[in-house]
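Morning run. Coffee first, then this:
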Amino acid sequence: MGLSRIKVLHLITGLDTGGAEVNLQRLTGAMDGGRIENVVVSLTAPGPLSKTIRDQGVKVDAVGMSRSLPTPAALYRLYRILRAERPDVLQTWLYHSDLIGLLVGRAARVPAIAWNIRCSDMGDEYRRGLNGALVRMLARLSSRPDAVVTNSHAGRAEHAALGYRPRRWEVLENGFDLDTFKPRHDAPARLRRELGLPDGRILIGLVARYDPIKDHKGFLAAAAELLSSDGEVHFVLAGGDIDRNNRDLTALIDRLGLGERVHLLGRRDDMPELTAGLDIATCCSLGEGFPTVVGEAMACAVPCVVTDVGDAARIVGDTGIVVPAGDARALAEGWRALIAKGIPGRAELGRQAVARIESEYAMTNCVERYQAFYESLVNHPSP
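And here it is:
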C-alpha cells in the first residue's frame, strides 16, 4: 500500500532573493507532486520570488506582517491560513518564522512542526540586541517542535553550542540544479567581451551581497596583495549593492589603488552564465552555514578558494583551496596557487568539482532527503 500525499506548508519571513528563499523556491519546484503538496506562505509581503514559485505550480500566500513586532491581527491572519490549509507539516524557515510558526502552529493544531536553520556562526552582531534575544528564546523552546533541520553540519554544531536541544536533529544539505549550473565553454569569452577584456585575462569572482559577513574588505585587500606580483588578474564582484552607487565600496577600491581591475556588476539575473565565465570563484565569508555560491561554482567547473567557515571545506573537499577566515594574505596565496596550476590544472580541478557536486549535492538527492523527512514526520511522529 502506497503512502498518502503529504501537505507541507512552508512559512518564511519573506520571499526576496536571498539564499534561504531561493533554496525554498528550488526545493518546492523540484518535489514530486504525487508525494508532497507544497504551500508557501510569506510572513511579510509576497516578494519577488512569489511569481516564480507560483509559476512552478505551488500555491503562495502572504500574511502581510510588517518587519517590526508582529501584531495580534497578523498572527490571527496566519492562524486562519493554517486552519484553512490544514497542513500535515509546518516547515518554518529562519528564526522569526521559527518562533511565530511554533506559537501559531500549535494553536492551529498542526500535527508536525519543523524548524529550518540556514546559518552557522554569523558573527557577534547576531548575538546582540533583539536578534540575540530571539536566538536565546528559540534555544529554550527548541524541544517544542518535532524536529530542527539545518542545512549544514556547522549549523547544527553552532546551535547546539547555543543551547538548542531538539527532539530530533536533521541535516539536509542544499542541492544544486545541474541543468542550470553547469560548465559553459563559451562563457569565459562572453564575460571577457562584456568587461572589455582580451582573452587570457584571469578572472577571480566573488558573488555575494554587500554585507560585513561576506568580507568584501578582505577580498579587496587580498586583490591588492595579489596584484603586487600578478598583474594580469581582474576581479569580478556581483550581488546586491555591489555597484558604483556603493560609496563605501568604491572608496575602498580607490584607496587600495585597484582602479579598473575590479568590475562591479550588481545584482544579476544570469548567475549561471556569469559564474561559468570565471577562472576562480571565491567565498571569503567570515561566517556561513552552507555557502550556496561555492556549490554553484563547482557545478560550473570553476575551482574555488574558500574560507574555513560553515561547511565550505566539506563542500570543496580536495577540489579547491581552503584558507583561514579574515586572512587576506592567505586568500591571495590561495589564488596564486590556483593561478600557478595553469589552464590545464584548473580545468582538471573543475572536472573533479563537477563530479563531486553530482555525487554529493545534486538537487535530486536534496529533494529526496526532504521528501523522506516529511514522510517520516507524518508516519513516525515524535512522542
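The chain has a mean pLDDT of 94. Good start to the day.
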